[in-house]
Amino acid sequence: MKNKISEEEIKNIVRTFVSNVFFFGVFIFLIIVSLYGVLIPHNSPAISAGNMQITPYKYGLYLDQNQRKIFYNFSPLNDFILNNDNSRNNLLTTRENYKSSFESSYWKGIIDSIKGYLNPKSTSIYFNGKEQIMYTATTQGNKFTITRDVAFSSNNNSQKTLSMTMSFNGDDFVYDKSGNLYNGFLISNVEQFEKSYGISLNPSLGDLLIPIKDNVIFISNPNVAGTIAIKAKANQQLFVNINTKLIEIQEKISSKNGVYETSLNGEIFQNPKEALSL
Amino acid sequence: MILSLISIIIMTYTLPLLMGRLIIKLFSKNTISYPFVSYFVTGVLFLYVILLILNSAIFPLFPNVVFIDAFKGVLSLLISVAIVGNFFLPKKDLNFKKYLFPAFFSSFLAIGIYFLWQLHSPFSLNWDIYEHQTLINNILAGRFSFFSSQISDTFGFNSYPTLFHSLIAASQAFIPLNLTNYWHMASLIHFSLVIFASYLLAKEITGNKKIALISGFLGGIIFDSTVSFTSFFLLPQTFTAVFFIFLFIQLLSSIKDKKTLPFSLIIIGGIFLILNHYLIGAVAFAIYLLTYLCFRYRNLIHLKVNKKIIIAIFSLLAILAVAFSSKLQLNFLNRGEAQFFNYSLSEKFNFMRQSYGFLILAFLPIGIFSILKKRKELEIFTLFITLSILTVILLQIPYVLKFYTLGRFFVHVLIAIGIYTLLKQVKNTILYYLAIISLVSILTGILISNSVYWKYYLSYNGTFASLSNNELQAASFLKNQYQGENVLLVSDPSTQNILEPFSLINTQGGAYMSSYSRSILDEISKTNDTAEIANKIYKINDSLIPEGTRLFAVSGRYFLWQSSSENDKKSISYNIWSPADLTLEDNMLIDKLKSDTSHFSLVFSNPSIAIFEVNK
Q1: Closest CB from B425, B448, B459 relative to A46
Q2: What average pLDDT does this structure show over A137-150?
Q3: Would the CB atoms of A37 and B357 count as touching at under 8 Å?
C-alpha cells in the first residue's frame, strides 16, 4: 500500500514538473517571439558626436548629419596596407567572399538597437573575409574615435604600415591649420566661407597626395552645419589624397596577439572658426 | 516643474472634480459607483458653460473687461466655492482606500516608463502640443470661441471645440510657467491616468487583480506610436479616450452592482466625450450608450434576439467591409490631409509590429479562447467591443487608426487575460517569478525598440528632439521684442509651428499653412531678387487676424523645407520634424538679405535661425 501511494505521488510530481516546464517554455517562447516582431530602423545603432552621428552601414561606418545626406565613410574597402614598394592593397575588396555583421541577424539588430538606446556611446561592425576586420566607434561629447582591429590571415607578426581612411566629398572644403585649401575650390563658396568665418583660404593645387605637417586637417561642407577635424597622433602620418578623395592616416604597427590595432581621432565643431581653436 | 504640476493638478483636474461634486450632490443623494468620474465630467462641462456664457453674453455687454482678468476671477471664485462647498458636504462617497494601490502603482510605473521614453530627449516629443498651445495662448489673450477655427487659422477644420484647451488654459492662467516643463508634467499626469484606467478596466471586467496588474502594465509599457498616441501624448483624442474608459468602468461597476446609473449621467458623459473630440467622442459615446442599453434591456435581448444569427451577420458584414472599404474615396477630407491617414492592411500590420512586436498575435488568441471558454457575460461583451473596434481599424478609410486610442484599452485586457491564462499554469514559484521577470524585460525591450524606431529621424546634437534651445532662444527674443504688436511671422510650416506657441507671435497657419502661402514660399526659393522676396512675403496673410509688419525667419528647417520636393511642400503632413542648424550655403542667402537694407533688417541670429524685419 505504502509503495503504491508513493508511486502515485511520484507520478503527480513528475506530471506537475512537466506541466510547469511545458507552460513556462511556451510562455517564454511566445514572449521572445513577440520581441522578434519589432521593427528596427536601418541606421541603428547610431551614436552622436557633436551635431553629427556615426552609423554602421554595409561597408563600414559613416559619419553624417541628420537630414543632410552627405556622408563620410570609414571602410575596409578604402583602408589599405602600404607595401615596401609603395603599392597599396585594400583590406577588403568587393570581389572577395566575405561576411559582414551588418544586418546579419535580425536578433542581433534588435539587441544592438536596445543596447544603443540605453548606452549610445559606441557602435561597431566587423568583416570576415580574407582578413578579419572590426571597426568600433566611440564618442564623448563632440569627440569621436574610430578604432580598427585587423587580424591578417597570414604573416601576422611582422610590422606593417597600415592606413585608416575617411572619405570626403567633391564639394567639401578640406584645409589645414594654415588655411591651405586642398579641395572645394568653387570661388563663390570660398568667398562666402572667408566672409562668414573670417578665415582666409589659399587654394593649394599640385600634388595628388599631400602630407599634412601639423597633423590636423579640417573638413567643412557648404550643406552641413559643422566642421570635422581629424587629428593624427604623434606616431601617425596624415595625408590628403585628392585622387581618391580620402583622408589617410598611415601608421607603422606591430601586432599584439596577432591583431593590428589603430585608431583615428576626430572632433566635430559647430563651425570652422571654433575648429581652429584645436 | 513643481509649479506646473501643482497648477495642472489643481486647476485642470481638482477644480472640475470639486465643482462637479458640489453640483451632483445638490441635485442627487444617490450613491454611484466611481463617483469621481461623474464629478469630473460634470465639473468640466459646468466650467465650459460658464466660459461660453461669459464670452457670448457678458463680454459683449462689458467690452472694457479684459478677458484674462475675468477668466482668473471666475476661476478663483469657483475654486473658493468648490472648496468651501465640498467642506460642508458629507464625506461618505470619498472612499479613497480602494484607489490607493492602483494610484500608487500607476504613478510610479508612469514615472519610470516616461523616463525611459524620454531618455536623450529633453523636450516633449509630442508634435501636436505646439498647435494646441497656440490655441491656448489665443484663449488666454481673449480670443475665445466655441469653434477652434475662429480663434486661429492653424485650425482650418473643427475636429473639436475648445473644451480641452479651456481646461488647459485654466492651469496656465495664473502664473507664467515654463511651457516645456508644463507639457512634460501634463503628459506625465495623463500617462498615469492611462495606466490607472487600464488597471481599473481589467479589474472591473475580470474581477482579477493579477490580470488588472498585467493590463495596467501593458497600458504603460505599450506605446501605440502611430496616429493614436494614447499613452505618452496628451491630446484631445487621448484625453477623450481616457475619460471614456473611466465612464465605461463606472458603467460596468453599476451593472455588476445591479444599480442603474441615472440616464442623465449617461447623457452628461456623452456630451463631455463629444465636446472633447467630435469623432472619437461620438464613437466612444456610441459604445458607452450601446453598453448601457444592452445591459439595461438584456432580458429583452435574450428573449427576442437570436445571438447566433446576429454573430453570423456581424461577421459577414465585417469581412465585406474590410474587403471593400478601399473602394470608398474619402481622401479629400480635411483639406486633403485625409489621404496621409489612409493606410493599407500591410502598413497597419507594420504599425502593430512597431508598437507590439508580435505580442498581439501571440496572446490575443489565447485571451479570446479563455473568454469563450469561461463564458462570463462581461468578458464576452468586452470581446465583442474589441473585435468591433478592430474591424473598424482594419477598414481602409482615412482616420480609422485614431479609434485605436479607444480600442487599445480593451485589446490590452484581452492580452492580459491571455498572458494570465498561461502564467497561472506555472505553479512552481521560481519558474513563475522567472516568467514575470522575463515578461517585464521583453516588454521593456519592445518599448525601447519602438522608441528607437520612432525617434531615429529626430537626431539633433546628441539628443532626439523636435525642438532646440536655439529655437527657444529665438522665440524668447520675439516675445520680448514684439509681443502685443501687430506682426506676422513668416517661415516654413515647421519653424512657424515651433515659434508661434513660445513667442506668442502670430503666423499664417503654423504647421497647417494654407496651400496658397506654401506656393508663395515656394516661389521665394526660386528667386534671388531680394525686393521680390520682400513683396512675396507680404502676400502671405492671416485670414483671422489683420496683418502688420512681417518678420521673416530663415532657419535650418526653412532651408531643408525649401530643398524638398514640390509634393512634399504642398503636403500638410510633411514637416521638418527635427531642428537643423544653418549651413554655409544657408548663410549665403542670409547675407544676401542682409545686404538689402531697404527691405531686410536683421533683428536676431543664432546658429539655427536668423530673423528679419521686412519692409515692402
Answers
A1: B459
A2: 96
A3: yes
Cβ distance B460 to A51 less than 8 Å, yes or no, reads: yes
Give alpha helix (H) positions in B230-340: 236-256, 263-276, 278-296, 298-304, 307-324
Of the candidates A187, A147, A36, the residue with the CA atom closest to the CA atom of residue B353? A36
Q: Do B353 and A28 touch (CB under 8 A)?
A: no
pTM as predicted: 0.93
pLDDT at B336: 65
Q: In whole angstroms, what is the distance from residue A52 CA to residue A46 CA?
A: 10
Cα–Cα distance between A147 and A137 in angstroms, integer? 6
The alpha carbon torsion through B347, B351, B354, B357 (nearest 10 deg) reads: -90
For an interface test with A, give the residue of B214, B360, B461 to mutate (most A CBs within 10 A).
Answer: B461
Angle value at C-alpha B278, between B276 and B282, nearest 5 degrees: 105
For B580, the closest of A31, A193, A225 (CB atoms) is A225
Instruction: Give the pLDDT of residue B333.
Output: 65
A97-120 exposure pattern, b = at least 16 Cβ within 10 A, e = fewer: ebebbbeeeeeebbbbbbebbeeb
Q: Chain B: nearest CA to A184, how far in angstroms?
A: 13
Contact A139, A230 (CB under 8 A): no
Contacts of A240 (CB under 8 A, 6+ apart): A174, A182, A183, A209, A210, A212, A217, A246, A247, A248
Q: What is the pLDDT of residue A205?
A: 82
pLDDT of residue B31: 78
Q: Give the single-character DSSP code of B396.
A: S
Regions of chain B where pLDDT drops below 70: 299-308, 328, 330-337, 544-547
Contact B588 A192 (CB under 8 A): yes
SS3 of A19, please?
helix
The C-alpha cell 584645409 sits at A175
User: Which pLDDT score is estimated for B303?
Assistant: 55
Separation of CA A80 from chain center = 16
* Burial state string for A135-173 with b = 16 or more CB within 10 A and e = fewer than 16: bbbbbeebebebbbbbebeeeeeeebbbbbbbbbbeebb
Are A67 and B435 within 8 A, CB to CB?
Answer: no
The percent of residues in chain A predicted with pLDDT above 70, rounded, is 98
* C-alpha distance from residue A1 to each of A4, A5, A7, B154, B498 (Å): 5, 6, 10, 86, 83
What residue type is A200 in one-letter code? S
Count of A-B CB contacts under 8 Å: 159
Q: Is B70 on the interface with A (CB under 8 A)?
A: no
Q: How far apart are CA B87 and CA B91, in angstroms?
A: 9
Out of A27, A35, A37, closest to residue B435 by CB: A27
The three grid cell numbers given for residue B525, joined into one nine-digit string: 526659393
Q: Which ipTM was obtained for this model?
A: 0.92
Q: Does the CB of B228 have a partner CB in chain A at under 8 Å?
A: no
Cα–chain center distance at A171: 22
Query: How much is the pLDDT for B28?
Result: 80
Rounded to whole angstroms, the Cα distance separating B578 from B600 reads: 27
Say if the Cβ atoms of A67 and B452 lie within 8 Å. no
